[in-house]
Amino acid sequence: MKFKKEFDINRETWNKKVEVHASSDFYNMKDFISGKSSLNKYEVSTLGNVSGKSILHLQCHFGQDTLSLARMGANCTGIDISDEGIKLAMKLNKQLDLNADFICCNVLETSDYISEKFDIVFTSYGTIGWLPDLKPWAEMISERLKLRGFFYIVEFHPIGWMFDYTVSPPAMRYGYQQKESIYEEYKGTYANPNSDILSKEYGWNHGLGEVITSLAEAGLHIEYLKEHDATPYNVFPELIKNSNGLFELPNKLYPLIFEIKAVKKV
Predict the structure, then answer these.
(1) What's the gap between Cα 122 and its chain centre?
(2) Measured between alpha carbons, how far is 63 from 45 in angstroms, rounded to an integer?
(3) Contact, 83 vs 104, CB < 8 A?
(4) 3-class DSSP string for 167-190
(5) Which of 56, 68, 218, 238 lies at a C-alpha separation of 20 to 30 Å from 140?
(6) Domain 4-156+206-230+257-264 has what CATH class?
(7) Where are the domains of the chain?
């Protein structure tokens, strides 16, 4: 597979992150197990009543969002490249007596592992930056959607990924439409910056034009693209909490997240 080295390194890093993330305040496992949903207002608003709906959740990490949707009555399948993530997701599924399915695979190879078609394909917050090319990603999404089913993504805005956050203050170093991969090594993770694990990561930047075009060329009708100043996660430097409990830049110079909903009409 093309980019095998990069994917293997990313998988190793995410395997190391699972234990750190599962014990972090960021993922708040105690409250999650007690019944708290891990979903945020953006995705809850768009996904709506999912009871009885089939949902494919792409790049699910260790399955909290997948299982939150299952608690809401959806028939969920979560996929992720991390063996350790899927192992923990399956353990949580059993512990919570839910009926979600989990499959370990590269998201670009989803159709090699799953033939079912879904009412909804869903992905969120820090997913597409791990993919070198969005064309096969979008084609897979179209393959896995039922007619009149929809794809929904809520994701960090590509402007945010133009910065190198390994230096302080962050430096604008990477191209908005940069084709070359970005390699970084740093101690800790977004969920626990004080962790001793060494993260080694390859990522790729994708502008909104590339995201929209890849989905449209795969046969999906773009219902909307929304950009927002505020993110549910305090993962960028110097964000402040607003009156809605979300995080934003003090100067609101650029949006921090975007949403796209796209429908399969043919």
Answers:
(1) 9
(2) 20
(3) yes
(4) CCCCEECCCCCCCCCEEEEEECCC
(5) 68
(6) alpha beta
(7) 4-156+206-230+257-264
The token pair that represents 19 in the structure block: 């234990």
CB atoms within 10 A of CB 197: 15
Distances (CA, A) of 247 to 3, 41, 109: 34, 13, 34
CB burial string 136-174: b at 16+ within 10 A, e below: bbbbbbbbbbeeebbbbbbbbbbbbbbbebeeeeeeeeb
The pLDDT value recorded for residue 57 is: 98
CA distance 98 to 70: 7
Q: pLDDT tens, 32-65?
A: 999 999 999 999 999 999 999 999 999 999 999 9
191-199: Cβ within 8 A, 24+ apart: 191/17, 191/20, 191/21, 191/24, 191/26, 191/27, 192/20, 192/21, 192/24, 192/26, 195/20, 197/16, 197/17, 197/20, 199/13, 199/16, 199/17
Q: What are the angstrom distances between the C-alpha of 236 and each of 34, 168, 179, 233, 253?
A: 29, 12, 23, 8, 14
Tokens linked to 64: 């909290």
According to DSSP, the β-strands at 101-104 and 75-80 are parallel
**Could you tell me the two tokens for 11?**
């998988």
Per the document, the length of the chain is 266
- Alpha helices per DSSP H over 81-237: 83-95, 110-113, 134-144, 208-217
Task: For 113-126, write each residue's pLDDT tens digit.
Answer: 999 999 999 999 99
